[in-house]
Design brief:
Elements lengths: L4 H4 E4 L23 E5 L2 E4 L5 H16 L5 H6 L9 E4 L13 H5 L18 H21 L4 E8 L2 H10 L31 E2 L16 E2 L2 E7 L1
Length: 233
């Protein structure tokens, strides 16, 4: 990836709690993956689309693994001992790393990907490949954290949601689009730091299917969120 990646991000050594504090325990039946809400059966879904800050954290870990000579973040984790946590990235703003992942000139000109005021906004107009890679990284990270917290599970996998799952969540939690799609009104894409329930923005969202969620909208932007399949012991 990018030259000088490490110069864009300051690293500090301490335990990394991804998307909320994880509580150590031997076994539980009410385990909810961080950042998600229960959908049905053993499936959980993100309350909100992924934000700029969340995606920057992924890029930081990806860059760290690459700088240390690993092809993937999973390879890096495999080299860590049980009980040893990764290095947590502290994102330093302004940060231009994310800009290289979008071709949207308007958003770049507004500083949408680089300025701290947009950290809690939905990450927009990246590629579906980037969205899939993020979900794969999240699988590896959360599984690693659960193992270190002695939280037992037999299966854990993050991936993009299906259209049926997204529509089901929208109905279950009675979420509606409360703003009109707009290219210039970026405040429409701001997200709370601690969302209470499932939230829908006036954007398209990548899905596991061949079409985007809310394809009927004349949306200017596309984001994404993950679902998590979890079997806890």
């Amino acid at each position: 990836m990018k030259t000088g990646f490490i110069r864009e991000i300051v690293f500090a050594l301490f335990i990394f709690f991804f998307l909320g504090k994880l509580h150590a325990q031997n076994s539980r039946t009410d385990l909810i993956p961080p950042g998600t809400i229960h959908l049905k059966n053993k499936i959980f879904i993100d309350k909100t689309p992924v934000t700029n800050l969340m995606f920057l954290e992924y890029l930081a870990f990806k860059g760290l693994a690459a700088d240390l000579g690993y092809n993937t973040f999973q390879e890096y984790l495999n080299s860590r001992k049980v009980g040893e946590f990764p290095i947590k990235p502290i994102i330093a703003y302004p940060n231009v790393v994310l800009e290289g992942y979008s071709k949207d000139v308007f958003l770049k000109r507004k500083g949408y990907f680089s300025e701290t005021e947009y950290a809690s906004y939905a990450v927009l107009n990246l590629s579906i490949k980037d969205a899939r890679d993020f979900c794969s990284w999240r699988t590896a990270m959360v599984a690693h954290l659960y193992k270190n917290e002695n939280i037992r599970f037999s299966n854990l996998q993050y991936r993009l949601a299906t259209i049926a799952q997204l529509n089901f969540a929208k109905r279950k939690y009675q979420s509606i689009v409360k703003a009109e799609p707009s290219r210039k009104k970026l405040s429409n894409y701001h997200l709370p730091k601690k969302p209470e329930s499932f939230m829908v923005l006036p954007i398209h969202e990548y899905s596991l299917d061949s079409v985007v969620f809310q394809s009927q909208l004349k949306a200017a932007y596309t984001g994404f969120r993950c679902v998590c399949e979890l079997d806890s012991e």
